[in-house]
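re: ur msg from earlier - yeah i can do the zinc ion complex, just paste it... oh wait u already did. ok heres what im feeding in:
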Amino acid sequence: MTSCRVCNSDIQPFMSFGDMPIANGFLMEEDYPEEFFFQMEVAFCKQCCTFQLINQPAPERMFHENYAYFASTSRYMQVHFQAFAEMIVKRILHDRTDPFIVELGSNDGIMLKHYKDAGYRHLGIEPSENVADVARAQGIETLSEFFSFDLAEQLVAQHGQADAVVCANVLCHIPDINSVAAGFATLLKPDGVLTFEDPYLGDVIKKTSYDQIYDEHVFIFSATSVSSIFERHNLELIDVMPQITHGGSMRYMLAPKGSHTVSHSVSKLIETERSQGLHRCETYEQFRRNCEKSRADLVGLLETLRSCGKRIVGYGATSKSTTVLNYCGIGPDHIEFISDTTPIKQGKYTPGVHIPVKSYNEFTANPPDYAVLFAWNHAAEIFEKEQKFLNDGGKWISFVPEVGIIE
Ligand code: SAH
Ligand code: TMP
Ligand code: ZN
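and the outut:
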């Protein structure tokens, strides 16, 4: 028994994924002996409805000057964040005098650059120095710190309160969510708005996309849990907007209680979550069985193909793939290499199971019989540019929502 990271109630893990390495911890052979592993177990809190990791490695192990995730590698995500910025300008910033916008986890500046280009006072909080430097090089104000309540107080003293705070794929990374929520309550103006998006629990459960669970993702949120977490800090959920990014995400807007009207979509989504059973322990028991089936199916498929002498490679050395490969025990015997466009990953090996990561050129120069689509959340973008692979007889293997060969 352990206690909930949000409300301190007793919680019990319902599933273990076994020993897991750092999802973005791509490494060289000489670093194998020091590779770090942790027990990846998940729990659901019946009191506050929050899905969470029991153990999470220290933030400094995951976010540092060699962080491997550069947000701008996907063209689709660039377009997505431009639209996100336009929405914030239209709904919050456009009619305010000299508004101030803060982004947490601003990474290489993929979203902040739009506020900067429009002349808004902005600040990114990005602890991973290497990605932050890419943003700074474009003139985007960036502070390399971990956001917390203490930092929020310092920011207010230095810059004043914020009109808008935005975050994408970062709140689900921060274990002390109560410190962060208290920090938002301090940082926001009385009429300020917090907007954040993260992978959505409803999609993870529906699609058995268990690969969203890895060291960085200490929480997988739903509207029910977000509402309950932030209510404790006097912030009210005022709107929700489903997103297709990262295989199904939710955008949440919150504001100091009573300062904004609450959209009907909030209560509608919370009702939908109830009918999906997101508040019931049985749902998570079923999820565990679905994960076990997915693992057996994927390993079975790869072994059958290998026994017929087929060549299989992976497409996209995603953070998510670390969970799939380690949970399923899939290694270089099954998958020859994984192709990825991110230079910092190339020439290294994947965390835990040590499959070589190679450049995209290797994929086109030496196309396999089958490619496992680890970057399945970017399927549309990838299929569009990989027509030739299919035309030449190549086939895709997918494992979300079900394991199979895409014909
Ligand atoms: N927002 C980008 C990047 C997401 S990756 C996108 O959606 O594509 C998550 C980012 O959050 C990383 O760059 C990481 O360094 C940063 N991060 C992790 N913990 C943080 C914290 N406590 N405060 C601010 N940023 C944090
Ligand atoms: P993500 O799923 O966390 O966004 O990571 C996507 C990874 O996939 C990233 O390492 C870049 C890689 N990638 C490719 O190699 N080719 C592609 O076409 C796309 C879209 C991503
Ligand atoms: Zn709880």
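cool cool. The mean pLDDT is 97. ping me if u need the other ligands too
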